[in-house]
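Same chain as my last thread, 293 residues:
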Amino acid sequence: MKWTIEKKDAGMLVRDYLRTVRAFSRRVLKAVKDEGRILQNGHDVTVRSILREGDILEVHLPKETKGKKMEPRYMPLEIVYEDSAVLVVNKPAGIPTIPSRRHSEKSLAQGILHYYREKGLSYTVHVVTRLDRDTSGLLLVAKHRFSHSLLARAQKEKEIKRRYKALIEGHLDMKSGTINAPIGRKEISMIEREVRHDGRPAVTHYEVIREFTDFSLVNIRLETGRTHQIRVHFSYIGHPLLGDDLYGGNKKYLGRQALHCDHLSFTHPESYQEMEFSAPLADDLKRVMNMNE
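reply #2:
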């Protein structure tokens, strides 16, 4: 990363410039100090160096170590956008975002690692917006720990926006509305969530786009981001997602939950530009709708 120092920032210590102007977290700055490099006009300096107008400041992040389960594995990737800081991928259903004890087979993260290796990039994978194994659609990845720290902060402050489309069983009486019901872990399961009075606040906004004989296509916007939130909320109101047998859905039409992230927007962590992406509905969801025209 490289910046030209402006007049308004002249006189600042490198440390203060990186912390206040470039929003480096303490953890990332410490990693740079301990294992990375800071150059001022091509010369190594410490964080106590004083900046002058017109100086070129460069920061080289330390090499990152990969987890034991994160072995690169080839898979085709649909890359929607890529630059030096972020990667946006259109994830297919049926593949986990990251490896886990339940899903130790090939994961999207391992496919991204293989892609990085083929391009000569020494990054590990920092997933910002994770999707369930059987959910398809747009997924945001930070390429390095600095962009990840900024995007994780934006995620916490609800500045990263996602919209989903889902096929739900039946027809809703109210064609648009809000489901406001707290969600927590189901006591008898490590996986399932449920609406419960002692759960964490969860708010889902929806709008019916189209109705079919047995199901409806809905547009969904999340105000919170609880695990399985969309699936739990629509099951709670009696309209589970098609194919979502974990939460009462029928697999008559589809073998996975009919959920797709079709819109993603965020502020770029380095350029500060507003980024916005869309992805068409997954083919299997289109087929279900076409069969029921």
